[in-house]
Amino acid sequence: MGATFAFAESRDGALRKVAFETVTAARRTADGSGGGEVHALLLGAPGIAAKAEELGRYGADLVIVVEDPGLERYSPEVFAASAAERIRTGGYRAAFFSASAQGRDLAPRTAARLGVSLASDVTEFEMRGDAVVVRHPAYTGKVIATMRLAGAPAVVSLRPGAIAAVEQARSPRVEQAAPAMAPSAARVVVTETSQRAGAKLDLGEAPVIVSGGRGLRAAENFKLVEDLAAAFGNAAVGATRAVTDDGWRPATDQIGQTGRVVSPELYVAVGISGAIQHLAGMRTAKTIVAINKDKDAPIFKIADYGIVGDVFEVVPRLTEEVRKARGH
Amino acid sequence: MKIAVCIKRVPEMELRFSIASDRKSLDQTGLKYEISDFDGYALEVALQLVEKAGSGEVVAISVGPDGVQETLRKALAMGAARAVQLKADHVPFDGFATATALAAELKAGGYDLLLFGRMAADTASGIVGPMTAELLDLPCVTAISHLELAGGRGTARRDLEGASETVQFPLPAVLTIDEGIARPRLATLKGIMAAKKKPLDVRPAQLGKVSLTVESMALPPERAGGKIVGEGPDAVPELVRLLRTEAKVL
Protein backbone atom coordinates (compact mmCIF):
# COMPACT_ATOMS: atom_id res chain seq x y z
CA MET A 1 0.00 0.00 0.00
CA GLY A 2 1.46 3.35 -1.04
CA ALA A 3 2.03 6.27 1.27
CA THR A 4 0.01 9.47 1.51
CA PHE A 5 1.55 12.94 1.42
CA ALA A 6 0.78 15.95 3.64
CA PHE A 7 2.34 19.40 3.38
CA ALA A 8 3.10 20.83 6.83
CA GLU A 9 2.75 24.61 6.85
CA SER A 10 4.85 26.68 9.22
CA ARG A 11 5.48 30.36 9.85
CA ASP A 12 8.32 31.93 11.83
CA GLY A 13 9.64 28.51 12.79
CA ALA A 14 6.34 27.30 14.26
CA LEU A 15 3.85 24.85 12.76
CA ARG A 16 0.46 26.23 11.78
CA LYS A 17 -2.71 24.54 12.99
CA VAL A 18 -3.49 23.64 9.37
CA ALA A 19 -0.39 21.42 9.31
CA PHE A 20 -2.09 19.10 11.79
CA GLU A 21 -5.22 19.14 9.64
CA THR A 22 -3.40 18.00 6.48
CA VAL A 23 -1.57 15.29 8.44
CA THR A 24 -4.89 14.17 9.95
CA ALA A 25 -6.44 13.99 6.45
CA ALA A 26 -3.49 11.95 5.16
CA ARG A 27 -3.69 9.65 8.18
CA ARG A 28 -7.38 9.08 7.57
CA THR A 29 -6.72 8.35 3.89
CA ALA A 30 -3.95 5.89 4.69
CA ASP A 31 -5.93 4.08 7.38
CA GLY A 32 -9.00 3.95 5.16
CA SER A 33 -7.11 2.20 2.40
CA GLY A 34 -5.21 -0.51 4.16
CA GLY A 35 -2.85 1.45 6.37
CA GLY A 36 -0.03 2.94 4.32
CA GLU A 37 2.39 5.47 5.76
CA VAL A 38 1.89 9.22 6.09
CA HIS A 39 4.78 11.34 4.86
CA ALA A 40 4.82 15.00 5.85
CA LEU A 41 7.00 17.61 4.13
CA LEU A 42 8.29 20.45 6.28
CA LEU A 43 10.40 23.32 4.92
CA GLY A 44 12.05 26.09 6.88
CA ALA A 45 15.16 27.67 8.31
CA PRO A 46 17.69 25.43 10.13
CA GLY A 47 16.09 24.18 13.35
CA ILE A 48 12.66 23.46 11.85
CA ALA A 49 13.39 19.71 12.19
CA ALA A 50 12.64 20.07 15.91
CA LYS A 51 8.96 20.36 14.93
CA ALA A 52 8.83 16.88 13.37
CA GLU A 53 7.70 15.28 16.64
CA GLU A 54 4.62 17.50 16.70
CA LEU A 55 3.61 16.17 13.29
CA GLY A 56 4.03 12.64 14.63
CA ARG A 57 1.42 13.40 17.25
CA TYR A 58 -1.18 13.67 14.46
CA GLY A 59 -0.09 10.54 12.66
CA ALA A 60 2.96 11.28 10.48
CA ASP A 61 5.22 8.21 10.07
CA LEU A 62 7.94 10.09 8.24
CA VAL A 63 8.77 13.78 8.24
CA ILE A 64 10.87 14.97 5.31
CA VAL A 65 12.67 18.07 6.52
CA VAL A 66 14.14 20.59 4.12
CA GLU A 67 16.25 23.10 6.06
CA ASP A 68 17.98 26.03 4.44
CA PRO A 69 18.88 29.52 5.68
CA GLY A 70 17.14 30.83 2.55
CA LEU A 71 13.82 29.30 3.68
CA GLU A 72 13.22 31.43 6.73
CA ARG A 73 10.25 32.87 4.82
CA TYR A 74 7.94 31.27 2.30
CA SER A 75 9.59 30.89 -1.09
CA PRO A 76 6.87 30.00 -3.64
CA GLU A 77 9.18 28.51 -6.25
CA VAL A 78 11.42 26.54 -3.88
CA PHE A 79 8.44 25.20 -1.94
CA ALA A 80 6.56 24.20 -5.12
CA ALA A 81 9.64 22.62 -6.71
CA SER A 82 10.44 20.68 -3.53
CA ALA A 83 6.86 19.51 -2.97
CA ALA A 84 6.45 18.48 -6.62
CA GLU A 85 9.73 16.59 -6.64
CA ARG A 86 8.87 14.72 -3.45
CA ILE A 87 5.35 13.87 -4.59
CA ARG A 88 6.65 12.70 -7.97
CA THR A 89 9.35 10.43 -6.55
CA GLY A 90 7.24 9.24 -3.60
CA GLY A 91 4.56 7.70 -5.80
CA TYR A 92 1.82 9.03 -3.52
CA ARG A 93 -1.79 8.32 -4.27
CA ALA A 94 -2.99 11.51 -2.60
CA ALA A 95 -1.34 14.74 -1.49
CA PHE A 96 -2.96 17.14 0.98
CA PHE A 97 -2.33 20.87 1.29
CA SER A 98 -4.26 23.49 3.22
CA ALA A 99 -6.33 26.11 1.42
CA SER A 100 -4.71 28.70 3.72
CA ALA A 101 -3.19 31.87 2.25
CA GLN A 102 0.08 29.99 1.70
CA GLY A 103 -1.58 26.76 0.56
CA ARG A 104 -3.74 28.59 -1.97
CA ASP A 105 -0.50 29.77 -3.54
CA LEU A 106 1.49 26.55 -3.18
CA ALA A 107 -1.03 23.80 -4.03
CA PRO A 108 -1.95 24.93 -7.58
CA ARG A 109 1.70 25.58 -8.43
CA THR A 110 2.67 22.13 -7.20
CA ALA A 111 -0.20 20.39 -9.02
CA ALA A 112 0.63 22.20 -12.27
CA ARG A 113 4.27 21.12 -11.98
CA LEU A 114 3.03 17.56 -11.60
CA GLY A 115 0.78 18.03 -14.63
CA VAL A 116 -2.37 17.21 -12.67
CA SER A 117 -5.45 19.07 -11.54
CA LEU A 118 -6.30 20.18 -8.03
CA ALA A 119 -9.43 19.91 -5.92
CA SER A 120 -9.30 23.24 -4.11
CA ASP A 121 -10.81 24.41 -0.81
CA VAL A 122 -12.35 21.07 0.06
CA THR A 123 -14.58 20.64 3.13
CA GLU A 124 -15.02 16.85 2.94
CA PHE A 125 -13.33 14.08 1.00
CA GLU A 126 -13.47 10.35 0.50
CA MET A 127 -11.20 8.04 -1.48
CA ARG A 128 -13.20 5.96 -3.95
CA GLY A 129 -11.03 3.46 -5.80
CA ASP A 130 -8.41 5.42 -7.71
CA ALA A 131 -10.32 8.65 -7.42
CA VAL A 132 -11.06 11.06 -4.61
CA VAL A 133 -14.56 12.46 -4.21
CA VAL A 134 -14.62 15.89 -2.61
CA ARG A 135 -17.10 18.50 -1.45
CA HIS A 136 -16.45 22.12 -2.22
CA PRO A 137 -18.64 25.15 -1.49
CA ALA A 138 -19.04 27.11 -4.74
CA TYR A 139 -21.05 30.13 -5.86
CA THR A 140 -20.23 32.03 -2.65
CA GLY A 141 -21.25 29.04 -0.56
CA LYS A 142 -24.76 28.97 -2.02
CA VAL A 143 -24.06 25.68 -3.82
CA ILE A 144 -22.21 22.60 -2.57
CA ALA A 145 -20.46 20.80 -5.42
CA THR A 146 -19.55 17.15 -5.10
CA MET A 147 -16.69 16.44 -7.48
CA ARG A 148 -14.60 13.53 -8.57
CA LEU A 149 -10.88 13.99 -9.10
CA ALA A 150 -9.42 11.18 -11.19
CA GLY A 151 -5.80 10.26 -11.70
CA ALA A 152 -2.82 9.99 -9.41
CA PRO A 153 -1.64 11.71 -7.41
CA ALA A 154 -4.91 13.28 -6.27
CA VAL A 155 -3.88 16.74 -5.09
CA VAL A 156 -6.34 18.28 -2.64
CA SER A 157 -6.34 21.50 -0.63
CA LEU A 158 -8.46 21.52 2.53
CA ARG A 159 -10.45 24.46 3.80
CA PRO A 160 -8.83 25.48 7.10
CA GLY A 161 -10.88 24.18 10.03
CA ALA A 162 -13.03 21.85 7.92
CA ILE A 163 -11.09 18.70 8.85
CA ALA A 164 -10.51 18.77 12.59
CA ALA A 165 -7.00 17.71 13.62
CA VAL A 166 -7.10 14.39 15.51
CA GLU A 167 -4.20 13.15 17.60
CA GLN A 168 -2.93 9.72 16.74
CA ALA A 169 0.52 9.69 18.21
CA ARG A 170 3.54 7.95 16.78
CA SER A 171 7.26 8.65 16.74
CA PRO A 172 8.06 9.76 13.24
CA ARG A 173 11.29 9.04 11.40
CA VAL A 174 13.00 12.18 10.17
CA GLU A 175 14.65 12.40 6.78
CA GLN A 176 16.72 15.42 5.82
CA ALA A 177 16.45 16.52 2.19
CA ALA A 178 17.86 19.36 0.10
CA PRO A 179 15.60 21.95 -1.52
CA ALA A 180 14.76 21.03 -5.13
CA MET A 181 16.19 24.36 -6.26
CA ALA A 182 18.60 26.80 -4.65
CA PRO A 183 16.63 29.46 -2.72
CA SER A 184 19.03 32.06 -4.14
CA ALA A 185 17.86 31.15 -7.66
CA ALA A 186 14.22 31.98 -6.94
CA ARG A 187 12.74 34.79 -9.04
CA VAL A 188 9.91 35.53 -6.63
CA VAL A 189 11.22 36.53 -3.20
CA VAL A 190 9.27 37.25 -0.02
CA THR A 191 11.33 40.07 1.48
CA GLU A 192 9.26 40.67 4.59
CA THR A 193 6.53 39.04 6.65
CA SER A 194 4.90 41.42 9.06
CA GLN A 195 2.59 40.35 11.83
CA ARG A 196 -0.45 42.56 11.93
CA ALA A 197 -0.64 44.55 15.14
CA GLY A 198 -3.40 43.52 17.50
CA ALA A 199 -4.21 40.29 15.67
CA LYS A 200 -3.83 37.92 18.57
CA LEU A 201 -6.02 35.15 17.27
CA ASP A 202 -6.52 34.63 13.57
CA LEU A 203 -10.07 34.49 12.19
CA GLY A 204 -9.32 31.12 10.63
CA GLU A 205 -8.11 29.59 13.89
CA ALA A 206 -10.35 31.15 16.53
CA PRO A 207 -13.11 28.88 17.91
CA VAL A 208 -15.28 31.96 18.50
CA ILE A 209 -15.70 34.98 16.25
CA VAL A 210 -17.46 38.17 17.28
CA SER A 211 -18.25 40.29 14.25
CA GLY A 212 -19.58 43.80 13.91
CA GLY A 213 -21.55 45.58 11.22
CA ARG A 214 -22.99 48.97 10.40
CA GLY A 215 -25.35 48.66 13.36
CA LEU A 216 -22.44 49.75 15.54
CA ARG A 217 -22.75 53.19 13.92
CA ALA A 218 -19.13 54.32 14.40
CA ALA A 219 -15.60 52.91 14.40
CA GLU A 220 -15.05 53.61 18.11
CA ASN A 221 -18.08 51.48 19.04
CA PHE A 222 -16.16 48.39 17.93
CA LYS A 223 -14.90 48.46 21.51
CA LEU A 224 -18.17 46.66 22.38
CA VAL A 225 -17.25 43.86 20.00
CA GLU A 226 -13.67 43.73 21.26
CA ASP A 227 -14.83 43.57 24.88
CA LEU A 228 -17.19 40.70 24.11
CA ALA A 229 -14.39 38.86 22.27
CA ALA A 230 -12.10 39.41 25.26
CA ALA A 231 -14.77 37.99 27.60
CA PHE A 232 -14.84 34.77 25.57
CA GLY A 233 -11.05 34.66 25.77
CA ASN A 234 -10.76 32.51 22.64
CA ALA A 235 -12.40 34.85 20.16
CA ALA A 236 -11.25 36.85 17.15
CA VAL A 237 -12.93 40.00 15.85
CA GLY A 238 -14.41 40.17 12.36
CA ALA A 239 -16.35 42.73 10.39
CA THR A 240 -18.67 43.14 7.43
CA ARG A 241 -17.60 44.58 4.12
CA ALA A 242 -19.54 47.79 4.77
CA VAL A 243 -17.43 48.31 7.86
CA THR A 244 -14.06 47.57 6.23
CA ASP A 245 -15.00 49.69 3.19
CA ASP A 246 -15.62 52.60 5.54
CA GLY A 247 -12.23 52.07 7.14
CA TRP A 248 -13.61 51.28 10.62
CA ARG A 249 -11.63 48.05 10.52
CA PRO A 250 -8.75 46.83 8.30
CA ALA A 251 -9.71 45.03 5.08
CA THR A 252 -8.15 41.82 6.45
CA ASP A 253 -10.94 41.63 9.06
CA GLN A 254 -13.61 41.31 6.41
CA ILE A 255 -15.74 38.17 6.52
CA GLY A 256 -17.71 37.40 3.40
CA GLN A 257 -17.69 36.55 -0.27
CA THR A 258 -14.76 38.84 -1.02
CA GLY A 259 -13.07 38.45 2.37
CA ARG A 260 -12.39 35.54 4.70
CA VAL A 261 -14.55 32.45 4.79
CA VAL A 262 -14.76 31.10 8.33
CA SER A 263 -16.40 28.18 10.15
CA PRO A 264 -15.95 28.76 13.90
CA GLU A 265 -17.76 26.90 16.66
CA LEU A 266 -19.61 30.09 17.54
CA TYR A 267 -20.24 33.20 15.46
CA VAL A 268 -21.74 36.24 17.15
CA ALA A 269 -23.09 38.80 14.66
CA VAL A 270 -23.43 42.22 16.27
CA GLY A 271 -25.42 44.84 14.36
CA ILE A 272 -25.15 42.85 11.13
CA SER A 273 -28.17 42.75 8.84
CA GLY A 274 -27.03 39.65 6.94
CA ALA A 275 -26.37 40.61 3.31
CA ILE A 276 -25.65 37.64 1.03
CA GLN A 277 -22.08 38.87 0.61
CA HIS A 278 -21.56 38.48 4.37
CA LEU A 279 -23.48 35.21 4.79
CA ALA A 280 -21.19 33.64 2.17
CA GLY A 281 -18.34 34.01 4.63
CA MET A 282 -19.92 32.62 7.80
CA ARG A 283 -22.92 30.42 7.03
CA THR A 284 -20.96 27.27 7.87
CA ALA A 285 -20.35 28.36 11.48
CA LYS A 286 -21.62 25.67 13.85
CA THR A 287 -23.66 28.02 16.02
CA ILE A 288 -24.73 31.53 15.00
CA VAL A 289 -25.96 34.20 17.39
CA ALA A 290 -27.39 37.44 16.04
CA ILE A 291 -28.09 40.67 17.86
CA ASN A 292 -29.91 43.29 15.82
CA LYS A 293 -32.59 45.86 16.47
CA ASP A 294 -34.46 45.04 13.24
CA LYS A 295 -36.50 41.89 13.83
CA ASP A 296 -36.84 41.40 10.05
CA ALA A 297 -33.07 41.44 9.40
CA PRO A 298 -32.08 38.46 7.19
CA ILE A 299 -29.40 37.43 9.70
CA PHE A 300 -32.19 36.10 11.98
CA LYS A 301 -33.21 33.59 9.28
CA ILE A 302 -29.90 31.75 9.59
CA ALA A 303 -29.07 32.49 13.23
CA ASP A 304 -29.59 29.67 15.74
CA TYR A 305 -30.28 32.21 18.47
CA GLY A 306 -31.34 35.80 18.04
CA ILE A 307 -31.91 38.72 20.32
CA VAL A 308 -33.89 41.62 18.93
CA GLY A 309 -32.63 44.73 20.60
CA ASP A 310 -30.26 47.66 20.75
CA VAL A 311 -26.66 46.38 20.47
CA PHE A 312 -25.56 49.15 22.85
CA GLU A 313 -27.74 47.63 25.57
CA VAL A 314 -27.58 43.93 24.74
CA VAL A 315 -23.86 43.50 24.05
CA PRO A 316 -22.50 44.95 27.34
CA ARG A 317 -24.92 42.69 29.24
CA LEU A 318 -23.81 39.69 27.17
CA THR A 319 -20.16 40.57 27.81
CA GLU A 320 -20.86 40.61 31.54
CA GLU A 321 -22.68 37.24 31.47
CA VAL A 322 -20.03 35.58 29.30
CA ARG A 323 -17.31 36.87 31.62
CA LYS A 324 -19.19 35.29 34.56
CA ALA A 325 -19.68 32.02 32.69
CA ARG A 326 -15.99 31.93 31.83
CA GLY A 327 -15.16 32.56 35.44
CA HIS A 328 -13.16 35.76 35.03
CA MET B 1 3.26 48.02 -21.08
CA LYS B 2 1.25 45.19 -22.60
CA ILE B 3 -1.10 43.46 -20.20
CA ALA B 4 -3.44 40.52 -20.62
CA VAL B 5 -6.36 40.24 -18.20
CA CYS B 6 -8.15 36.90 -17.98
CA ILE B 7 -11.76 37.42 -17.04
CA LYS B 8 -14.60 35.04 -16.32
CA ARG B 9 -18.29 35.48 -16.89
CA VAL B 10 -20.22 34.28 -13.85
CA PRO B 11 -23.84 34.42 -12.66
CA GLU B 12 -24.75 37.37 -10.44
CA MET B 13 -24.26 35.96 -6.98
CA GLU B 14 -27.09 37.92 -5.36
CA LEU B 15 -29.67 35.85 -7.26
CA ARG B 16 -31.46 32.86 -5.80
CA PHE B 17 -29.98 29.68 -7.29
CA SER B 18 -31.67 26.38 -7.95
CA ILE B 19 -30.22 23.13 -9.24
CA ALA B 20 -31.08 21.89 -12.75
CA SER B 21 -32.80 18.55 -13.35
CA ASP B 22 -29.46 16.88 -14.16
CA ARG B 23 -28.58 17.49 -10.46
CA LYS B 24 -25.10 18.63 -11.46
CA SER B 25 -25.52 22.17 -12.78
CA LEU B 26 -27.38 25.37 -12.03
CA ASP B 27 -30.85 25.91 -13.39
CA GLN B 28 -30.22 28.65 -15.96
CA THR B 29 -33.71 30.12 -15.66
CA GLY B 30 -33.53 33.75 -14.69
CA LEU B 31 -29.75 33.82 -14.26
CA LYS B 32 -28.01 37.05 -15.15
CA TYR B 33 -24.30 37.25 -15.79
CA GLU B 34 -21.52 39.64 -14.96
CA ILE B 35 -17.73 39.80 -14.79
CA SER B 36 -16.43 37.90 -11.74
CA ASP B 37 -15.72 40.43 -8.98
CA PHE B 38 -11.96 39.92 -8.54
CA ASP B 39 -11.49 39.87 -12.33
CA GLY B 40 -13.04 43.35 -12.38
CA TYR B 41 -10.35 44.54 -9.96
CA ALA B 42 -7.68 42.91 -12.15
CA LEU B 43 -9.01 44.74 -15.20
CA GLU B 44 -8.96 48.06 -13.35
CA VAL B 45 -5.38 47.48 -12.20
CA ALA B 46 -4.34 46.75 -15.79
CA LEU B 47 -6.05 49.87 -17.16
CA GLN B 48 -4.40 52.07 -14.53
CA LEU B 49 -0.95 50.61 -15.18
CA VAL B 50 -1.19 51.22 -18.94
CA GLU B 51 -2.51 54.75 -18.36
CA LYS B 52 0.39 55.44 -16.02
CA ALA B 53 2.92 53.99 -18.46
CA GLY B 54 1.51 56.26 -21.18
CA SER B 55 1.69 53.52 -23.79
CA GLY B 56 0.73 49.92 -24.31
CA GLU B 57 -2.52 48.04 -24.32
CA VAL B 58 -4.81 45.90 -22.22
CA VAL B 59 -6.10 42.72 -23.83
CA ALA B 60 -9.13 41.04 -22.23
CA ILE B 61 -9.34 37.27 -22.62
CA SER B 62 -12.14 34.93 -21.65
CA VAL B 63 -12.81 31.23 -22.09
CA GLY B 64 -16.37 30.17 -22.74
CA PRO B 65 -19.42 30.10 -25.02
CA ASP B 66 -20.55 33.13 -27.07
CA GLY B 67 -22.15 34.65 -24.00
CA VAL B 68 -18.69 35.74 -22.85
CA GLN B 69 -18.60 38.22 -25.74
CA GLU B 70 -20.98 40.43 -23.79
CA THR B 71 -18.55 40.40 -20.83
CA LEU B 72 -15.61 41.09 -23.14
CA ARG B 73 -17.45 44.03 -24.73
CA LYS B 74 -17.92 45.42 -21.24
CA ALA B 75 -14.15 45.15 -20.69
CA LEU B 76 -13.61 46.94 -24.01
CA ALA B 77 -16.04 49.65 -22.92
CA MET B 78 -14.02 50.13 -19.72
CA GLY B 79 -10.89 50.67 -21.80
CA ALA B 80 -9.34 47.40 -22.96
CA ALA B 81 -7.91 47.77 -26.49
CA ARG B 82 -8.98 44.39 -27.79
CA ALA B 83 -10.45 41.11 -26.66
CA VAL B 84 -10.10 37.41 -27.33
CA GLN B 85 -12.76 34.77 -26.80
CA LEU B 86 -11.36 31.27 -26.43
CA LYS B 87 -14.47 29.49 -27.52
CA ALA B 88 -15.66 26.46 -25.56
CA ASP B 89 -19.18 25.07 -25.06
CA HIS B 90 -18.72 25.50 -21.35
CA VAL B 91 -15.95 26.34 -18.91
CA PRO B 92 -14.93 23.18 -17.05
CA PHE B 93 -14.79 23.17 -13.25
CA ASP B 94 -11.29 21.74 -13.72
CA GLY B 95 -9.00 24.77 -13.44
CA PHE B 96 -6.05 22.93 -14.93
CA ALA B 97 -7.96 22.36 -18.19
CA THR B 98 -8.72 26.10 -18.38
CA ALA B 99 -5.15 27.09 -17.46
CA THR B 100 -3.90 24.88 -20.31
CA ALA B 101 -6.07 26.78 -22.81
CA LEU B 102 -5.00 30.18 -21.46
CA ALA B 103 -1.31 29.25 -21.43
CA ALA B 104 -1.53 28.24 -25.10
CA GLU B 105 -3.07 31.63 -25.97
CA LEU B 106 -0.77 33.75 -23.80
CA LYS B 107 2.52 32.00 -24.57
CA ALA B 108 3.62 34.05 -27.57
CA GLY B 109 1.71 37.22 -26.72
CA GLY B 110 4.72 39.25 -25.58
CA TYR B 111 2.91 40.44 -22.45
CA ASP B 112 4.64 42.23 -19.57
CA LEU B 113 1.95 41.14 -17.14
CA LEU B 114 -0.78 38.52 -17.06
CA LEU B 115 -3.47 39.44 -14.55
CA PHE B 116 -6.22 37.30 -13.04
CA GLY B 117 -8.73 37.78 -10.24
CA ARG B 118 -7.75 35.97 -7.04
CA MET B 119 -10.53 33.48 -7.72
CA ALA B 120 -13.70 33.18 -9.77
CA ALA B 121 -16.92 33.77 -7.85
CA ASP B 122 -18.57 30.62 -9.25
CA THR B 123 -16.00 27.82 -8.91
CA ALA B 124 -14.27 29.62 -6.01
CA SER B 125 -11.06 27.65 -6.52
CA GLY B 126 -8.42 30.30 -7.26
CA ILE B 127 -6.13 28.00 -9.19
CA VAL B 128 -6.20 29.08 -12.85
CA GLY B 129 -3.79 32.02 -12.38
CA PRO B 130 -0.94 30.21 -10.59
CA MET B 131 -1.38 27.12 -12.79
CA THR B 132 -1.12 29.25 -15.96
CA ALA B 133 2.05 30.81 -14.51
CA GLU B 134 3.60 27.39 -13.93
CA LEU B 135 2.67 26.19 -17.42
CA LEU B 136 4.40 29.28 -18.85
CA ASP B 137 7.25 29.12 -16.33
CA LEU B 138 6.64 32.73 -15.31
CA PRO B 139 7.14 34.33 -11.88
CA CYS B 140 3.82 34.56 -10.06
CA VAL B 141 2.44 36.31 -7.00
CA THR B 142 -1.10 35.46 -5.91
CA ALA B 143 -3.83 37.39 -4.08
CA ILE B 144 -2.06 40.74 -4.03
CA SER B 145 -3.61 43.78 -2.37
CA HIS B 146 -0.91 46.29 -3.30
CA LEU B 147 1.39 46.67 -6.31
CA GLU B 148 4.27 48.89 -7.40
CA LEU B 149 6.26 48.55 -10.62
CA ALA B 150 9.60 50.16 -11.43
CA GLY B 151 12.45 49.31 -13.76
CA GLY B 152 11.16 45.96 -14.94
CA ARG B 153 10.52 44.73 -11.40
CA GLY B 154 7.54 44.69 -9.11
CA THR B 155 6.82 44.76 -5.41
CA ALA B 156 3.52 43.36 -4.20
CA ARG B 157 1.85 42.80 -0.87
CA ARG B 158 -0.31 39.81 -0.09
CA ASP B 159 -2.37 39.30 3.04
CA LEU B 160 -1.92 36.20 5.15
CA GLU B 161 -3.86 35.11 8.21
CA GLY B 162 -3.03 37.85 10.70
CA ALA B 163 0.00 39.04 8.75
CA SER B 164 1.11 40.22 5.33
CA GLU B 165 4.00 39.45 2.99
CA THR B 166 6.01 41.80 0.81
CA VAL B 167 7.03 40.04 -2.38
CA GLN B 168 9.47 41.11 -5.11
CA PHE B 169 9.47 39.73 -8.63
CA PRO B 170 10.79 40.46 -12.14
CA LEU B 171 8.59 41.09 -15.20
CA PRO B 172 7.10 39.44 -17.15
CA ALA B 173 4.98 37.93 -14.41
CA VAL B 174 1.58 36.54 -13.51
CA LEU B 175 -0.35 38.30 -10.74
CA THR B 176 -3.70 37.43 -9.17
CA ILE B 177 -5.58 40.35 -7.67
CA ASP B 178 -7.31 40.53 -4.32
CA GLU B 179 -9.97 43.04 -3.36
CA GLY B 180 -9.11 46.50 -2.15
CA ILE B 181 -6.40 47.29 -4.67
CA ALA B 182 -8.57 49.30 -7.09
CA ARG B 183 -12.27 49.88 -7.59
CA PRO B 184 -13.44 49.03 -11.13
CA ARG B 185 -14.49 52.09 -13.13
CA LEU B 186 -17.87 52.36 -14.77
CA ALA B 187 -17.93 52.35 -18.55
CA THR B 188 -18.77 55.73 -20.04
CA LEU B 189 -21.22 56.14 -22.90
CA LYS B 190 -18.28 57.08 -25.11
CA GLY B 191 -16.50 53.92 -24.02
CA ILE B 192 -19.54 51.79 -24.78
CA MET B 193 -19.80 53.29 -28.28
CA ALA B 194 -16.06 52.83 -28.91
CA ALA B 195 -16.20 49.21 -27.70
CA LYS B 196 -18.45 48.25 -30.58
CA LYS B 197 -15.66 48.97 -33.04
CA LYS B 198 -12.82 47.36 -31.09
CA PRO B 199 -11.51 43.97 -32.27
CA LEU B 200 -12.86 40.84 -30.57
CA ASP B 201 -11.17 37.74 -31.93
CA VAL B 202 -12.70 34.31 -31.53
CA ARG B 203 -10.52 31.22 -31.44
CA PRO B 204 -11.22 27.68 -30.28
CA ALA B 205 -10.06 27.02 -26.70
CA GLN B 206 -7.41 24.33 -26.50
CA LEU B 207 -8.66 23.02 -23.17
CA GLY B 208 -6.55 20.47 -21.35
CA LYS B 209 -7.75 17.06 -20.28
CA VAL B 210 -10.52 17.27 -17.70
CA SER B 211 -9.92 15.12 -14.62
CA LEU B 212 -11.98 17.07 -12.07
CA THR B 213 -15.67 16.59 -12.82
CA VAL B 214 -18.86 17.58 -11.03
CA GLU B 215 -20.80 14.56 -9.80
CA SER B 216 -23.61 16.51 -8.24
CA MET B 217 -24.60 19.93 -6.99
CA ALA B 218 -26.89 20.67 -4.11
CA LEU B 219 -28.06 23.67 -2.18
CA PRO B 220 -26.59 23.75 1.31
CA PRO B 221 -28.96 22.46 3.98
CA GLU B 222 -31.12 25.29 5.24
CA ARG B 223 -30.10 26.32 8.69
CA ALA B 224 -32.95 25.66 11.08
CA GLY B 225 -32.33 29.13 12.46
CA GLY B 226 -34.84 31.75 13.25
CA LYS B 227 -35.09 31.16 16.99
CA ILE B 228 -35.58 34.51 18.64
CA VAL B 229 -34.56 34.13 22.27
CA GLY B 230 -36.11 37.39 23.30
CA GLU B 231 -35.95 41.15 23.13
CA GLY B 232 -33.46 43.51 24.72
CA PRO B 233 -30.84 42.88 27.41
CA ASP B 234 -33.27 40.85 29.53
CA ALA B 235 -32.97 38.03 26.98
CA VAL B 236 -29.22 37.69 27.62
CA PRO B 237 -29.35 35.21 30.57
CA GLU B 238 -31.55 32.85 28.52
CA LEU B 239 -29.17 33.14 25.55
CA VAL B 240 -26.20 32.31 27.75
CA ARG B 241 -28.09 29.33 29.18
CA LEU B 242 -28.85 28.03 25.66
CA LEU B 243 -25.24 28.53 24.55
CA ARG B 244 -24.11 26.51 27.55
CA THR B 245 -26.67 23.69 27.68
CA GLU B 246 -27.99 23.36 24.12
CA ALA B 247 -25.20 24.56 21.79
CA LYS B 248 -22.50 23.61 24.32
CA VAL B 249 -20.18 26.37 23.16
CA LEU B 250 -19.77 28.16 26.45
If you had to describe this structure to a student in words, what would you say it looks like?
The complex is a heterodimer of chains A (328) and B (250). Chain A has 328 residues and is an alpha/beta fold. Chain A has helices at 17-32, 52-56, 76-90, 101-114, 222-232, 241-245, 276-282, 299-302, 311-326; strands at 4-7, 10-11, 14-15, 38-44, 62-67, 94-98, 118-122, 124-128, 131-138, 143-149, 154-158, 173-177, 189-195, 208-212, 235-239, 266-270, 287-292, 305-308. The longest helix of chain A is centred in the N-terminal third of the chain and has 16 residues, at 17-32. The N and C termini of chain A lie far apart (52 Å). Chain B has six helices and 13 strands. Chain B has helices spanning 37-53, 68-78, 95-106, 128-136, 189-195, 236-245; strands spanning 2-6, 9-11, 33-35, 57-64, 82-87, 113-117, 140-150, 153-160, 163-170, 173-177, 200-204, 212-218, 228-231. In chain B, helix 2 (68-78) crosses helix 5 (189-195) and helix 3 crosses helix 4. The longest helix of chain B has 17 residues, at 37-53. The model of chain B has no long low-confidence stretch (mean pLDDT 95). At the A-B interface, helix 3, helix 4, strand 7, strand 9 and strand 10 of A face helix 3, helix 4, strand 7, strand 8 and strand 9 of B.
Q: Which helices and strands occur, and which strands form pairs?
A:
The complex is a heterodimer of chains A (328) and B (250).
Chain A: E1 4-7, E2 10-11, E3 14-15, H1 17-32, E4 38-44, H2 52-56, E5 62-67, H3 76-90, E6 94-98, H4 101-114, E7 118-122, E8 124-128, E9 131-138, E10 143-149, E11 154-158, E12 173-177, E13 189-195, E14 208-212, H5 222-232, E15 235-239, H6 241-245, E16 266-270, H7 276-282, E17 287-292, H8 299-302, E18 305-308, H9 311-326
Parallel strand pairs in A: 1-4, 1-6, 4-5, 5-12, 6-11, 7-11, 14-15, 14-16, 16-17, 17-18
Antiparallel strand pairs in A: 2-3, 8-9, 9-10
Chain B: E1 2-6, E2 9-11, E3 33-35, H1 37-53, E4 57-64, H2 68-78, E5 82-87, H3 95-106, E6 113-117, H4 128-136, E7 140-150, E8 153-160, E9 163-170, E10 173-177, H5 189-195, E11 200-204, E12 212-218, E13 228-231, H6 236-245
Parallel strand pairs in B: 1-4, 1-6, 4-5, 5-11, 6-10, 7-10
Antiparallel strand pairs in B: 2-3, 7-8, 8-9
